[in-house]
Amino acid sequence: MSMWQWSLIVLSVLFLGVFLFTGFRYVSLKKKAVKLGFVPKEDLSEQDVGPQSPSDDEKQQWLALLRQQQYICAQLIEELPKSDFQGRAALSCWAIFLDIEINIIEHAIPHSQVAELLEAFKGILDKVDRGSRSG
What we know:
Keywords: Membrane, Transmembrane, Transmembrane helix. The protein is mainly α and about 140 residues long. The chain has helices spanning about 5-35, 40-50, 55-80, 85-105, 110-135. The radius of gyration is 24 Å and the shape is flat. The model has no long low-confidence stretch (mean pLDDT about 80).
């Protein structure tokens, strides 16, 4: 075996050792933090429960961000030349996705129904993807 191959093997073993050391160090420090009271056990168990419903203030912040992105998307669509079909299609997809996201947040649609809404969006993405491959 050449020197390059041996050096790759040595580096791989070294990176594995660093990874294992970091993992064990993380676990031990996490246990110490819980034991010393820096991280309450209740906080750890609450994180595992699942997503919590956001406050009205958080919803308004997300909606403002999504509307700002909608505005930017609309500006970019206007600035693009009519001949750039792929760019216009991609931005149109992004605009539709933003509409869906805003609708989800405004109407507090449950997580179980979100997948159905995004499945409808997947068909549009597949069409754009096929168009970009043929073009």
